[in-house]
Amino acid sequence: MLQQERYEKILSRVQAKGAVRVAALAKALEISESTIRRDIIELDHMGKLRKVFGGAVSCDAYLTSNETDVNTRATFSVLEKDSIARYAANLIEADDFVFIDAGTTTDKLIDFLPGSKTATFVTNGLAHALTLTRRGHKVYLLGGRVNASTEAATGVEAVSSLGKYNFTKCFLGTNGIDVEHGFTTPNVEEAMVKTHAAQRSSVVYVLADSNKFETVAPVTFLGIDKAWIITDKLENVEYRDHTEIIETE
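and the corresponding structure tokens:
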């Protein structure tokens, strides 16, 4: 098969599926995986697709700067978020000092905390703070500029508030996970809070449903090797070469 013909077939599959694996392409086109990898690298250089760990994605699917509001995001991947949040809640011990990031999956974590838990919580999520308080938990809310779409305290003031805390565990949300770009989010000020909270925690967990993998938002807040990932399922097992991953399904 000529190189140009291979390019056309690869691009056709990427455009149809949004994302493809090297192994699947090699099998479908009856070409060696090494040849597929070289073709993907060349197509990436030409800007026709984006090379990702283990395969390729369309340019449109790879980079996203969309930041939907909390109410909309709460309707996405509901069952997956429930399983992730339930597992994460069981990791919290009575004497933990915990940071909980703003976000819809981290919000669900609070729902699964037994009332008998005596851990202390710090959060930048306005709704999180209210829910924790109503459930009888001790909670501290960071100061800072409020992002209306995420209902989170962000920016320099929030980072400054973090300076006096040392967490045993930290639970973060993310918009994207990629080997090269790490954990990403659309908002610079929220990224600052996530980064500093992680730096001040003994153990860092990122809660993310499987749709977040091989997606990149504009701002990296943490390298992929800096946190454990709790997800519903992992389709690309090669991510395990870079960090610890817990599947809940």
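(Above: one complete record from the training split.) The chain has a mean pLDDT of 89.
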